Amino acid sequence: MFVQLRIWVEYTIGDIRYHNVPYFSRKLFQWINVEAWCDKWQTNEGKNRLTYTAEKPYLDEASFGEQALNFFVGSTLISYVDSKLSNSLSNGMASGELPIASQPCNCLNFKRGTAPTHADGYVGFYYFPVRKIAVEQLYSDPVLRLLSIKRIATVGEILLDTQDLQIEYMANFDKGLMRPKPIAENETVAFKKEYSVKFEHPNPYNRLVVTVNVTVLNQQMRIYSGFLHFEKEQKFGEGVQKLTIMREVWRPTSTGPDGRPIKPYTSLMPAYELEFDIKYTKPKRY
């Protein structure tokens, strides 16, 4: 999991001279993608990383002043300036990693004891010292088994009658992949066949993170994701658990109670509800 920012940058190239007299300026535009994440956050040795990808910049159109001067010099000025500026620009994308201090982190998106929040696009990476707990008994052969999926109807939006889904489910590092039969709105598909994944016991990390990615194969490969987090005090999520995956829904222009128009906006609505069973068996003494 990571945070991705897409930044729009505008550059002004000023003081462009004609016969040594400042006459006009040009603008350049560029998209820069910045990604921040905690590498190996699920271990106790995670480090913050920050990378970027700068797309090829492009030129704005000539200003009125430049177009006027271009007219009086035989329509050669704009093409000359375009050529000079284009030759000075990179022909491709540039990428790299920003030299920030690699701060330790082992916790995603929330502080211990608080629920995740997505207000104002905020995402946090934190580090909490791992408590040393004397463990007399652990359980081997932990298994996560996918039991069912329900497709929740979304009010106010027209969707496909049936969706062809691919479900990727993960327990910390270990993952499974399956495709259920096409599913309609408000339909629940219970899996008769066993879809499960065995995973490493979460005790070394003091947490189990269950992550699910649902890909709609017949709708532009859209991916919807969600996760649940269980600590040792919660018995690492042992038992039947439910995960609700949200999706972003656009609300069209409408009229408010006072008759004024309400601009389009987005809201999060439930899209899928998955049920799975986490089991720890075979007591084993250490």
Descriptive report:
With 286 residues, this protein is mostly beta strands. It folds into 2 domains: 3-97, no CATH class; 135-285, C2 domain (Immunoglobulin-like), CATH 2.60.40.150. It is 7% helix and 55% strand. The chain has 2 helices and 20 strands. The chain has helices at residues 64-72, 77-88, and strands at 3-18, 21-39, 46-54, 58-59, 94-97, 104-105, 107-108, 125-126, 137-151, 162-163, 165-171, 174-178, 183-184, 188-198, 207-216, 222-231, 239-251, 254-255, 261-262, 265-285. Strands 1, 2, 3, 4, 5 and 6 form a 6-stranded antiparallel beta sheet that branches. Strands 14-9-20-17 form a 4-stranded antiparallel beta sheet, with no helix packed on it. A 4-stranded antiparallel beta sheet has the order 12-11-15-16, with no helix packed on it. It is elongated, with a radius of gyration of 27 Å.
Rounded mean pLDDT is 79
Number of strands: 20
The level-1 CATH class of the largest domain? Mainly Beta
What percent strand? Answer: over 45%
At the fourth CATH level, what is the homologous superfamily of the largest domain?
C2 domain
Helix content: under 10%
> What fold name stands as the CATH topology of the largest domain?
Immunoglobulin-like
Rg (C-alpha, Å): 27 Å
> What's the oligomerization state?
single chain
List keywords for this structure.
286 residues, Immunoglobulin-like, 20 strands, 7% helix
